[in-house]
Amino acid sequence: MKKYMAASLMVLAVAQAYAAPAPDTLAKVLASKELRVCSPGDYKPFSFDNQGRFEGIDNDLVTRLAKSMDAKVVIVKSSWPTLIADFKSKCDLGVGGISITLPRQQQALMSEPYFTNGKTPLVRCEDVSKYQTVEQINRPDVRIIANPGGSNENFARTALLKAKLTMHPENITIFDELVAKRADVFVTEAAEAMVKTHEYKGVLCGVNPDKPLRPSQNAWLIKDNDFRFKAYVDQFLRLEKLSGRLEETIRRWLPN
Asked: Helices 245-253 and 227-243 sit at what angle, rounded to 10 degrees?
């Protein structure tokens, strides 16, 4: 009898979970006139906290998305280790150069991709020829560095197991570790490697950003089961592409 009741309660719990109403972010934003957006704000050219003002490709796009709903953007600063949890509890959308990964899609929906990216080594310019391939980097004598909580750490821990890994607490000053020669390679996304090649001209160089070690795509986090809002966001991004405004925004923030 106890086993029967336990099984019945389990079935009931599962049924209730599936019967729970899906979120309706679109209705919420239209009513509140606010679009709450989580972002780590440390990833140029997508989203960067410039003394309290968030700017970049994603911030330009979400401002226009909010305008389409007659709403204003409210930025909630997050971090890569806490991004999913913060997004689930505090935000309507998660942005900031987020790579589409299967673990992330187990916890949330993701918009259709708006940018094609990929894992690219960032090194001192004199070392570009030394670190062209995974095999050249994945060696015990190579000091790699990564920031916690995102796909950069995942790549370091899964594809570069033989290299000597140092974790750096955040993504703002990690590049100075390369300059100071305390690390040899930081494998990040092609877009960020291009930005830092421009900012640290002649000092740091991205290695073949047009041919990344592992291609990826960037998208936005959307609440699980909120297919209505996903359809709205996806259509917004399609219209941005068709109008040419997406490409204009990318060119504004991504150096040639």
From this structure: 80
Max Cα-Cα span within the chain: 75
Task: Read off the pTM.
Answer: 0.84
Q: Which domain holds residue 197?
A: 118-215
Within 8 A by CB and 6+ apart from 27, the residues are none
Examine residue 85 and state whether it is found in any structural domain, yes or no: yes
177 plus 100 within the same structural domain? no
Residues 6 or more apart whose CB falls under 8 angstroms from that of 101 comprise 151, 154
How confident is the model over 49-70, as pLDDT tens digits?
999 999 999 999 999 999 999 9
Q: Tell me: the pLDDT tens digits for 151-199? A: 999 999 999 999 999 999 989 999 999 999 999 999 999 999 999 999 9
Q: At residue 186, what are phi and psi to the nearest 5 degrees?
A: -120, 115
Q: Does one domain contain both 208 and 169?
A: yes
* Extended strands (E) in the chain: 34-39, 42-43, 47-50, 53-55, 72-77, 93-99, 109-110, 115-124, 143-146, 164-167, 185-189, 204-206, 214-222
Residue 21 is predicted with a pLDDT of: 77
